[in-house]
Predict the structure.
Amino acid sequence: MKNTLAFAATAALAFASLAGAATYDIDASHSRASFKVRHLMISNVRGDFSGIKGSIEFDAAKPAAAKIEAVIDVNTINTAEPKRDAHLKSPDFFDTAKYPTMSFKSKSVVKTGANKFNATGDLTMHGVTRQVVLAVETTPDVKDPWGNVRMGASATTKINRKDFGLAWNQALETGGVAVGEEVEISLDVELVKKAAAASKPTN
């Protein structure tokens, strides 16, 4: 009897721990990855990528167990200037013919405050992989008008584009360069919770 009760208690705890974790898929139509980089040493150029896919496995009670994976279609880059976008897609920068996507895969997640986390992981861009830290902030779950459960997340980080082989530049007569090396990155995503798989009948 004791063994039966112990097994039942263990099974209940295991089920409870699994029940808390959930997988959320990125809703690409309501998500953007944006960047900001210095131009001519006097202003900032901003742009974004709209083609984001990926998922997050997340349990608010166990944030350290979270897993984040995202892939961005670099060809969706938009800086509101077609000629500049074409140059950014060329071999001078992203070389999208050879490297059409960039990706992020988390390796560890640490809670830093209420709904705030640091996600350390591998960013792969232009064929180069470097470790970066995303400062992430999430929102509580909400239910949309169609019955889906959604969560929001925003993340920021900074990188040096030369670390990823994006080294093109032009020197200015007055000193400095045309394009800054430091790039500020921010992501704003909506995530849709996957429905739990229905159990199969036993007969």
The longest strand covers residues 179-193. The longest helix spans residues 2-20. The chain has one domain: 21-193. The CA atoms of residues 87 and 150 lie 37 Å apart.
